[in-house]
Amino acid sequence: MVAIVTGGARGIGAATARRLAADGMAVAVIDLDEAGCRTTVDAIKEAGGSAIGVGADVSDADAVAAAVERVVAELGTPAVLVNNAGVIRDNLLFKMTDSDWDTVMSVHLRGAFLMTRAVQAHMVEAKYGRIVNLSSTSALGNRGQANYAAAKAGLQGFTKTLAIELGPFGITANAVAPGFIVTEMTQATAERMGVDFEAFQAARAKETPVRRPGYPADIAHTISFLASEGAGFVTGQVIYVAGGPRG
Ligand code: NAP
């Protein structure tokens, strides 16, 4: 089985790519820069798995079409698509620029749309597919993230619609909505706020029922379940993976 993971160079995407490879899938790791995918691809190969790195900006229609074509040619028909690539451009609304808004919408929403449209053609033909989109607890509203919250809530509506349209073809679509996860993205947030990252993690752990921060492997584990063949009756769902109840 072939899986595509976008934004797989680091963080949640890298952990997910490694996990799906450990589950026995050949993984196409897509990220902005092909060289940036090397660490993930090498880790998969060292563990005995199979992977390729593909450079593509998911918000660029031509780049997406070329990337998906390459995956099909080199690995075969994709059975799993994980739309994980993401960026943040946090700011309070009155300071948020047009570009802060457009960049976040482009990568999360347009990126997931372009990737899914390109990949579903192959999944429909194969009458099988598992699509997982990365939402966030920020979809419920988060100060300083009007753009990101809107995009992550938008992905939930996108996911539910995919489930309805693609279900008849054996394709499921679900969203995973992580809470606070230790990655370079949250490290950048701590830096921007002028807070030590360790202290930031400790503060977030304290307000989380399971009393710890989340790690990329926590999200990869949930995605592994949704990407499995046995999860074929689970579709159109949003699973909050946040160390406590949400939603
Ligand atoms: P991350 O460490 O910043 O990794 C994101 C990856 O996506 C990077 O490798 C980045 O590449 C890549 N990327 C960005 N724009 C791209 C584009 N246009 N095309 C292709 N790749 C692109 O983020 P993360 O924390 O692992 O987050 C992964 C996903 O989970 C995101 O969708 C994020 O919104 C979501 N999420 C994260 C958290 C959290 O607490 N960390 C919580 C909820 C949801 P470059 O390095 O080249 O920029």
Give a written overview of the molecule.
This protein is an alpha/beta fold and about 250 residues long. The chain folds into two domains: about 1-180 and about 215-240, Rossmann fold; about 180-215, no CATH class. The chain is about 45% helix and about 15% strand. The protein has eight helices and seven strands, in the order βαβαβαβαβαβαααβ. Strands 3-2-1-4-5-6-7 form a seven-stranded parallel sheet, sandwiched between helices. Helix 2 (about 40-45) links the parallel strand 2 and strand 3. Helix 1 runs parallel beside helix 2 (about 40-45) and helix 1 (about 10-20) packs across helix 8 (about 215-225). It is globular, with a radius of gyration of 17 Å. The model has no long low-confidence stretch (mean pLDDT about 100). NADP nicotinamide-adenine-dinucleotide phosphate (NAP) binds near residues 7 and 33.
Keywords:
single chain; alpha/beta; Rossmann fold; 2 domains; seven-stranded parallel β-sheet; 7 strands; globular; binds NADP nicotinamide-adenine-dinucleotide phosphate
Topology:
Layout: E1 2-6, H1 11-22, E2 26-31, H2 38-46, E3 50-55, H3 61-74, E4 78-83, H4 98-126, E5 129-134, H5 146-166, E6 171-178, H6 184-193, H7 197-206, H8 216-226, E7 238-241
Parallel strand pairs: 1-2, 1-4, 2-3, 4-5, 5-6, 6-7
